[in-house]
């Protein structure tokens, strides 16, 4: 597991940004998923990480070259399953408030833990209310089992439904378009 922001583990700090002008101020960017910020970071050849829970945005962020994709506890299992199944280059990460949460993240197979100290430019008020600013809160507890498996099951059901939708119209009764 990659650990950012703990005193015992060397790390490169993240810089939370909200607009395109800030892309040029820092080298290791963190922002809520935003097409324009991703394009600006790519153009400026900056390392960047995104915050999102949307499956489409998770897939796009990985394809665009994000280092970390920060998700909340409700999306963690599904996001990590996607990352494992599709061999993401990006790492799935979660914000945590203390080292006690590391065990839970490890049990879920989450790639990275981000402590609040990893965000170098964040004012204390932002760290206390990160949910208000970027739509997330630091994770202090572990998700319940039904939250983990329920999210993964919903994702599996969606993939299965999409597979049926794509296979049915183009294929004959004994044809499978995935085998062509």
In short:
40% of the residues lie in helices and 16% in strands.
Give the overall average pLDDT.
83
How far apart are the first and last residues' alpha carbons, in Å?
39 Å
One letter per element, helices H and strands E, the order comes to EEEHEHEHEHEHHH
| E-strand count | 7
Which terms summarize this structure?
180 residues; alpha/beta; 7 helices; TIM Barrel; 2 domains; seven-stranded parallel beta sheet; single chain
Plain-language structure description:
The protein has helices at 35-43, 55-64, 76-85, 102-108, 124-128, 130-134, 145-170; strands spanning 2-4, 15-16, 28-32, 47-51, 68-70, 91-96, 112-115. The protein has 180 residues and is of the alpha/beta class. It has a seven-stranded parallel sheet with strand order 1-7-6-5-4-3-2, covered by helices on one side. Helix 4 links the parallel strand 6 and strand 7 (112-115). The longest helix is centred in the C-terminal third of the chain and has 26 residues, at 145-170. Mean pLDDT is 83; it is low at 129-142.
Please give the structural blueprint:
Layout: E1 2-4, E2 15-16, E3 28-32, H1 35-43, E4 47-51, H2 55-64, E5 68-70, H3 76-85, E6 91-96, H4 102-108, E7 112-115, H5 124-128, H6 130-134, H7 145-170
Helix pairs in contact: 3-7
């Amino acid at each position: 597991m990659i650990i950012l922001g703990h005193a015992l583990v060397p790390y490169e700090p993240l810089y939370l940004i909200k607009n395109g002008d800030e892309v040029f101020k820092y080298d290791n960017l963190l922002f809520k998923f935003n097409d324009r910020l991703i394009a600006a970071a790519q153009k400026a050849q900056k390392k960047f990480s995104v915050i999102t829970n949307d499956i489409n945005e998770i897939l796009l962020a990985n394809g665009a070259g994000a280092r970390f994709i920060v998700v909340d506890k409700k999306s963690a299992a599904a996001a990590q399953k996607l990352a494992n199944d599709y061999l993401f280059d990006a790492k799935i990460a979660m914000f945590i408030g203390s080292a006690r949460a590391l065990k839970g993240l490890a049990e879920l197979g989450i790639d990275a833990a981000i402590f609040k100290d990893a965000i170098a430019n964040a004012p204390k008020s932002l760290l206390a209310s990160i949910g208000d600013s970027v739509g997330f809160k630091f994770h202090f507890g572990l998700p319940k089992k039904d939250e983990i498996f329920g999210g993964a099951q919903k994702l599996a059901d969606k993939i299965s439904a999409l597979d049926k939708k794509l296979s049915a119209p183009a294929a004959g009764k004994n044809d499978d378009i995935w085998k062509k």
